[in-house]
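Q: What structure does this chain adopt?
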Amino acid sequence: MALIQCRECGKQYSTQAAACPVCACPTVRADRDAGGGAIPVVTTAPVVTEATGKHWKRLQLVGILMMLGSCVAIIGSAGGSAKGDTSGSMIGGGLFLAGVVAFIYGRAMAWWHHG
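A:
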């Protein structure tokens, strides 16, 4: 394993690395063509595809679970509404609304923080 010097920060790192571990500058590797001339090949650092934090995903999941729970509460209180008791459907409606707000807030914050 050979060491090379970073062209940006000057620190030494392995030739096997795709980028400098200190400043993330991509490694430039010189390959040889058929005539023996050097062909510079730039290898890029790995791209992070998962940028959204778990906090915002968790909030979205809580919102979905609240909406599902409200559906269960509304369906469960359907028998009581025939007797004039609408407290279960009121609680279910409030829970559904809170779930929608939590889900939308989680989506908006995930977009805001990570594009």
